[in-house]
Design brief:
Alpha-Beta Plaits, Nucleotidyltransferase, domain 5, 23 helices, Taq DNA Polymerase, Chain T, domain 4, DNA-binding, alpha+beta, 16 strands
Length: 636
DNA sequence: GTGGCGTCC
DNA sequence: CAGAGGGACGCCACT
């Protein structure tokens, strides 16, 4: 704790909340009716005000749910807090269950009474990470509508690179107010308990404060969005995306746990076999999963030449082991094989079945909308955006992702989306022309790199050109490209030079973007998503170059993120109306996966492709590939 | 909790 | 001369 600053109190004298009972626990029917009347009274006076820009915060109320779990798909409702004006809050406990708990209003009654207000779209609601509350409330028959402001999303849109957008941090930053933390009322570590076991008086103070702070933050953040011209991105993209993500997360995806178990058993056998081979070659037993022990074995006991070091010792990563294998050593290959299987088993075939929700029998990832600096989504618990696909063993894991009976999986992915956006953003004549004429961009680059006619371009030349095409987006160096392609550094540099000689618009874009980032301190995407690049002025050359690559990459990656978000929103709205039995299941950055009734597949496929391709009008055509099948692997 | 490593786009 | 690829999440070992 910071000396002199007690939790729950303002940091500065003038910021202190007024004295008096302003946070109230609601325990009687009479009190509840009073609260409901107050909530209804927050209705905007005229329908024309609803949804009007700038109306946020003037009417409506903040809402927050307290539950027994961080995972909304497993959470049970403990209480609901509401705030209609700053420094005021109500907490309605419905699920506390400790010895000596006072009489609470029956949950069913509270739900039934709150439902019409929470579902009234014309009454604005404010929340912090309101996606969570939407999912929890849905399990009690409430489809919250009118969610007009999410403070976490607003903070993210204002500055996506911040490490945290938690309410505690937002309160401190924007209100200079230190909130009661979750740990302070629930404990931490082994002593942590769920909120249903914490006294109502304590949870009431905590929860009312959260609703209160959320309301206050809405007043502060809403004008800031307007100032930074971020309202459109917020209203047109991030806010409507919440409903899409809620639907996806709630529905979940089906996996075949038996198939996973079978794979795990098979991997175990192979791991044992390869492990024995490794021990034999090593002349000792060791923990192959320990980079430390592995480094000591390879570079001390066996005296292999070490290529690079980490902060803590020898590096034993895939590059190092591959180089050693190329040099003729047998052991590194075995270790690589072991590593791959070990990864697949521990991260996927062992872990995924444990994530099956017992109530739904499906896997419900969490899509986080406020993590990445570029505007992409991330996925966790479990992460469904890094399911293997490259190797045959990996693809077997994808085969365990299956549709509901009578359905098929449809996968639709943007073809070369970042290169197409590069063409649009840079306006490069050659790139634009190539895409407008539907040419093979990798072959086109290969023609230049190798100075040969089309007929003489080998698949390997095209592959190398493909690597160059993609590497440019990331701002790769000749050093890394040479390692990637296993070619001399000079040759790699020649590739890069030839690339920029052909695509001069890209060269100019790279230069101009760095200059612009220096001048304004940030870069933006097509939809005006912003990312600050403070290190662009760093005197540390490394940090500065990193910042320059970031500045160049972010508008590309971020615009691709904008595009697929728009597509998700559009598809969601139209699907809900026309085909409610079609479900969007997953997003993997440039891919959307759907669960589709077999009979409807052809129509849906055509619809999805058309929506994804047309959601933004760029200088170049956008192409989407779509496939379907009985599992996620087949759908590729 | 941190670092190394590996999976994805 | 060192460091030299954008964005994520999760598992394991080790401290």
């Amino acid at each position: 704790m910071i000396p002199g600053v007690e939790r729950g109190y303002a940091l500065a004298e003038e910021e202190q909340k007024p004295e008096g009972k302003i946070y109230q626990a609601v325990l009687t029917e009479e009190h509840l009716q009073q609260v409901l009347a107050e909530l209804r009274a927050t209705h905007p006076p005229s329908p024309s005000l609803y949804g009007r820009e700038g109306a946020g915060g003037e009417f409506g109320f903040a809402v927050d749910t307290e539950t027994t779990s961080e995972d909304p798909m497993r959470a049970e409702l403990v209480g609901i807090s509401l705030s209609t004006k700053p420094h005021h809050g109500y907490y309605i406990p419905v699920g506390h269950r400790y010895i000596g708990v006072p009489q609470q209003l029956p949950r069913e009654v509270v739900i039934q009474q709150l439902k019409p207000i929470l579902e009234d779209e014309t009454i604005p609601k404010y929340g912090q990470n309101i996606k969570y509350d939407l999912i929890v409330l849905s399990h009690y028959g409430i489809e919250l509508k009118g969610a007009q402001f999410d403070t976490m999303l607003a903070s993210y849109i204002l500055n996506p690179s911040k490490r945290s957008h938690s309410l505690d941090n937002l309160a401190e930053e924007y209100l200079h107010y230190r909130t009661i933390t979750y740990k302070e009322i629930a404990g931490s570590g082994a002593k942590q308990v769920t909120l249903d076991l914490v006294p109502i008086e304590q949870v009431s103070e905590y929860s009312c404060e959260d609703a209160d702070v959320t309301l206050q933050l809405t007043h502060v953040l809403q004008p800031q969005l307007a100032e930074h011209h971020l309202q459109q991105l917020y209203q047109q993209v991030e806010l409507p995306l919440i409903d899409v993500l809620v639907t996806m997360e709630r529905h979940g995806v089906k996996i075949d746990p038996q198939m996973m178990e079978h794979l795990s058993a098979e991997f175990t056998k192979q791991l044992n076999r390869i492990g024995q081979e490794i021990y034999a070659l090593a002349g000792q037993e060791l923990n192959i999963n320990s980079p430390k022990q592995l480094g000591e074995l390879l570079f001390e006991k066996l005296q292999m030449p070490f290529a690079k070091k980490t902060k803590t010792g020898y590096s034993t990563d895939i590059d190092v082991l591959t180089d050693l294998a190329r040099a003729g050593y047998e052991l590194p290959n075995k270790i690589l094989e072991y590593r791959q299987l070990s990864k697949l088993k521990s991260t996927y075939t062992d872990a995924l079945p444990k994530q099956i929700n017992p109530k739904t029998g499906r896997i419900h990832t969490s899509y986080n909308q406020t993590v990445t600096s570029t505007g992409r989504l991330s996925s966790s618990d479990p992460n469904l955006q890094n399911i293997p696909i490259r190797t045959p063993e990996g693809r077997r894991i994808r085969r365990a992702f299956i549709p509901e009976d009578g359905h098929l999986l449809l996968s639709a992915d943007y073809s070369q989306i970042e290169l197409r956006i590069l063409a649009h953003v840079t306006g490069d004549a050659e790139l634009v022309k190539a895409y407008q004429h539907d040419e093979d961009i990798h072959t086109k680059t290969a023609l230049r790199l190798f100075g040969l006619p089309v007929a003489e371009i080998t698949p390997n030349m095209r592959r190398e050109a493909k690597t160059v095409n993609f590497s440019v987006i990331y701002g790769i160096s000749a050093f890394s490209l040479s390692k990637d392609l296993n070619i001399p550094r000079k040759e790699a540099q020649r590739y890069i030079d030839e690339y920029f000689a052909l695509y001069q618009g890209v060269k100019h874009y790279v230069e101009d973007t760095i200059v612009l980032a220096r001048k304004q301190g940030y870069v933006t995407t097509l939809l005006n998503r912003i990312r600050y690049i403070p290190d662009i002025h760093s005197k540390n050359a490394n940090a500065r170059q990193f910042a320059e690559r970031t500045a160049v990459n972010t508008p590309i990656q971020g615009t691709a993120a904008d595009m697929i978000k728009l597509a998700m929103i559009s598809i969601h709205k139209k699907l809900l109306q026309a085909y409610p039995d079609v479900k969007m299941l997953m997003q993997v950055h440039d891919e959307l996966v759907f669960e589709v009734p077999e009979k409807r597949m052809e129509a849906i496929k055509t619809f999805v492709v058309s929506e994804m391709e047309s959601v933004l009008d760029l200088k170049v055509p956008i192409k989407v590939d779509a496939h379907y099948g009985k599992n996620w692997d087949e759908a590729h």
